[in-house]
Specification:
Oligomer: heterodimer
Number of strands of chain B: 5
Shape of chain A: elongated
Strand order of the largest sheet of chain A: 1-3-4-5-2
CATH topology of chain A: Thiol Ester Dehydrase, Chain A
Largest sheet of chain B: 5 strands, antiparallel
Structural class of chain A: alpha+beta
Order of helices and strands of chain B: EHHHEEEEH
Number of domains of chain A: 1
CATH superfamily of chain A: Hotdog Thioesterase
Strand content of chain B: 35-45%
CATH architecture of chain B: Roll
Strand order of the largest sheet of chain B: 1-3-4-5-2
Helix content of chain A: 25-40%
Largest sheet of chain A: 5 strands, antiparallel
CATH class of chain B: Alpha Beta
Strand content of chain A: 15-25%
Structural class of chain B: alpha+beta
Chain lengths: ~120, ~150
């Protein structure tokens, strides 16, 4: 299977307001996403973006370029935290000929997540 | 984590795709396609039944645990204002040396029972200092204590 024909896309810089809005929207009260003191207790330097928010950044890039109906499955591994101020870029990546992959990197080049995408018409749909 | 929760259904309820909640997600994303994205993931399975509905029973420490992954199987988008049924269960929960891992599965169905989405979230929790790693027999499910640690 060929690599995703995805043009790298950078999401708007993450803000604390956006992080709060997202967790309020999905109803996740975990303070690690909103309370810096709690995040410090968890050994983190700051609050971290909620899991579905990171998934949403990947999905936004996919939907923008292929349309919502084309995306059937998305399997995301969270490999590093996303913090306030981070700018996350979604790019295509190859994990082998059977998988269509995406990679999410912050502005420092750190991989924060990877994902495997199943699209309509793929052999394993 | 409470390994005894393996296979348990923790939440069976109905929820509404509230326009106000979707609007919050759209604001958070701030992109032209944000509404389409939000209608693909308006709920977070581990908290869709309430903040402690999963964290409590599986005994996940929020200070030692984080989501390590998430997978979605979409059959269609949610619709604004629709009422959906959701079942949340513990698909897997294991002792992995210095870590505990749990996979929480949530399935969403529309009013006529059609599957809208399967969502899995994997939690990774560091064990507290001093908690022993599983024995070989337990890790292999070779005795009674291992039954919940497979």
């Amino acid at each position: 299977m060929s690599e995703l024909d995805l043009t790298p896309a950078t999401a708007p810089a993450m803000t604390r307001e956006a992080m709060r809005s997202f967790v309020d929207g999905v109803g996740d009260p975990n303070p690690v996403h909103t309370d810096p003191e709690f995040a410090a207790k968890a050994g983190l330097p700051d609050v971290v973006v909620q899991a579905s928010h990171t998934t949403a950044i990947a999905l936004n890039a996919l939907i923008a370029q292929f349309g919502a109906d084309a995306i059937l499955n998305l399997d995301v591994r969270l490999r590093g935290p996303v913090f306030p101020g981070d700018e996350v870029t979604v790019s295509p990546v190859s994990f082998g000929e059977l998988d269509r992959g995406v990679e999410l990197r912050n502005q420092r080049g750190d991989v924060v997540a990877t994902g495997i995408v199943v699209m309509r018409g793929d052999p394993d749909e | 984590m409470n390994l005894e929760t393996l296979g348990q259904v923790l939440v069976e309820t109905e929820v509404v795709v509230e326009p106000e909640s979707v609007a919050l997600l759209v604001d958070a994303l701030g992109t032209p396609h944000a509404t389409e994205v939000a209608l693909r993931l308006p709920f977070f399975g581990p908290t869709v039944g309430g903040g402690d509905s999963v964290v409590g029973p599986i005994d996940l420490s929020l200070e030692r645990g984080l989501a390590g992954g998430q997978s979605f199987e979409w059959h269609r988008s949610f619709r604004l204002g629709e009422r959906v049924s959701v079942v949340v269960s513990v698909e897997d929960i294991i002792d992995k040396g210095t870590l505990h891992l749990a996979t929480v599965l949530s399935e969403y169905r529309g009013a006529d029972g059609d599957l809208i989405q399967r969502q899995r979230t994997v939690f990774v929790e560091r064990k507290p200092p001093g908690e022993p790693a599983p024995t070989v027999a337990a890790a292999d499910g070779g005795d009674g204590a291992g039954e919940s640690a497979r």
